[in-house]
Amino acid sequence: MIKAKVVMDRDFAIGQTDPRLFGAFVEHLGRCVYGGIYEPGHPTADRQGFRRDVLELVKELGPTIMRYPGGNFVSGYNWEDGVGPAKDRPARLDLAWFTTEPNTFGTNEFVDWCRAAKVEPMFAVNLGTRGGDAARNLVEYCNHPGGTHLSDLRRKHGWEKPHAIKFWCLGNEMDGPWQMEYKTATEYGRVAKEAAKMMRWIDPTIELASCGSSGRNMQTYGRWEDEVLEHTFEQVEYISLHTYFNNYAGDTAAFLASPDLMDTFIDEVVSIADGVSARRRSSKKIMLSFDEWNVWYRTRRNRADRVKEGWPVAPPILEEIYSMEDALVFGGACVSLLNHADRVKTACLAQLVNVIAPIMTETGGPAWRQTIFHPFAHMSRLGRGRVLRANVDCPSYDASYYDPRGTLDQYFPATGVQYLKLAAVASDTGGLNILALNRDLKRSIEVTIDTRGFGQLDVAEALEMHDADLKAHNTKAAPDRVKPRALKDAAVAKGTIKLKLAPASWNVVRLEPAK
Ligand code: AHR
């Protein structure tokens, strides 16, 4: 058993969480759209072909904003192919995932699905094979009320009212050679700036995110952000970050340490953005959009997991099966995002269904929750409010995290990794929510939390996720093999919260003012 002492004060906050921090992502990739959210003919499908069983799970998961339509896919996408009568829409080869895209689901269907799921749509525009002209046309089609060719086309297609899409991503991972027409920072910065200018001229109320690096391990990382923001600083509110955690090395301690490198990544991008701002003597602060994050490695490197030959429609690719171990790392990432609530205003779990996803489906069959579903649902439900500056005093360890880029081996030091990783959120009800990861594989942590300025609190809910088998996962036959259970050792005594966290466990505790 090890001990940890946590001190926090109700008045010392990092920041209020933005509702968009709890977003996810739907890409035209594998069975995310077709066979995932959309499956006409499925026993639960509604009139529009939306799977109701998936919608129910999405509501329980609690995402607030949904990025669409990619991802790598967007860099070759003609949005015009996905609107109008479905029978007239062209099928196209998608060079991102080497599939055939039938285009029977597109912009308008996605907006309707978002309304049904009660989430805000977030759109990415194609700045790979296309540019500012296609981007501004899409904004006009979606957001202009009427009286022009494109806005009237939307009305003719059956959507009388504008979609009022607020959040737009200026392309996707444009620094990556795997992207259709990837660019240098200079090339991308120029295109993004001009596209942004025109998109905002059409709708001044939109918010824009420029592409940051597709990962902290990219060779151009840092210089890319600096130059892209040099071009786009006046036009954008956000810069994006993407991270996929891995355990290629089979080093669980390093894998569990990796969310701390997400903290470092965020801090570094904040510094670069603030540097660009400082050079201008500007008071503007560029916020961060962490619009792709998850664990992803088993179905990443091997071409057979990413590509099914013969240009199929919606093949089962990137269908990562998540374990208990992955849920722990995932929970650590939730804590990292919450603890940067002052600068990370948007974040999207990549992705939503089937493709590296918290929800799995069988085409024609049932839907179930993967292990990572639970920490996300906890973060979305308990992360609303003011994140407090919690001082954690606890033993730590050092690790070396392997995060290869292409064929290049790269190790990243993670030092002073505290076994306890924790976020504390003061809720609107006057209560306090604790989200905590114990990264010690063998020992429990006895945690004492000194909460100042709260008055008497009672434990209203306490849950843990823990399984002696770190490889345990959920399947269609055993959909609840890994799920949260009651955390018994959670109590408040003389104003101090006492928790006992099992080895390798994810824990959440909701405290409410005593009655
Ligand atoms: O989410 C899967 C892929 O990961 C996305 O298409 C791309 O943006 C990233 O490389």
Which labels suit this protein?
8-stranded parallel barrel; binds alpha-L-arabinofuranose; 515 residues
Topology, element by element:
Blueprint (H helix, E strand, L loop, with lengths): L1 E8 L3 E4 L6 E3 L26 H10 L3 E4 L23 E3 L4 E3 L5 H11 L2 E6 L6 H12 L5 H8 L10 E4 L14 H18 L4 E4 L12 H10 L5 E8 L6 H28 L7 E9 L7 H4 L17 H15 L5 E7 L8 E3 L5 E3 L3 H10 L3 E3 L2 E3 L2 E7 L8 E8 L1 E7 L5 E7 L6 E8 L4 E9 L19 E2 L3 E4 L2 E6 L3 E9 L2
Parallel strand pairs: 1-21, 3-4, 3-12, 4-7, 7-8, 8-9, 9-10, 10-11, 11-12
Antiparallel strand pairs: 1-16, 2-15, 5-6, 13-14, 15-19, 17-18, 19-20, 20-26, 21-25, 22-23, 22-26, 24-25
Helix pairs in contact: 3-4, 3-5, 5-6, 6-7, 7-9, 9-10
This protein binds alpha-L-arabinofuranose.
Give structural notes:
The chain is of the alpha/beta class and 515 residues long. Helices cover 24% and strands 28% of the residues. It contains ten helices and 26 strands. It has helices at 52-61, 107-117, 132-143, 149-156, 185-202, 223-232, 252-279, 303-306, 324-338, 373-382; strands at residues 2-9, 13-16, 23-25, 65-68, 92-94, 99-101, 120-125, 167-170, 207-210, 238-245, 287-295, 344-350, 359-361, 367-369, 386-388, 391-393, 396-402, 411-418, 420-426, 432-438, 445-452, 457-465, 485-486, 490-493, 496-501, 505-513. The chain has an eight-stranded parallel β-barrel with strand order 3-4-7-8-9-10-11-12, surrounded by six helices. A hairpin with an 8-residue loop joins strand 17 (396-402) and strand 18 (411-418). Helix 3 (132-143) crosses helix 4 (149-156), helix 3 packs parallel to helix 5 and helix 5 (185-202) runs parallel beside helix 6. 51% of the residues are buried. Bound molecules: alpha-L-arabinofuranose (AHR).
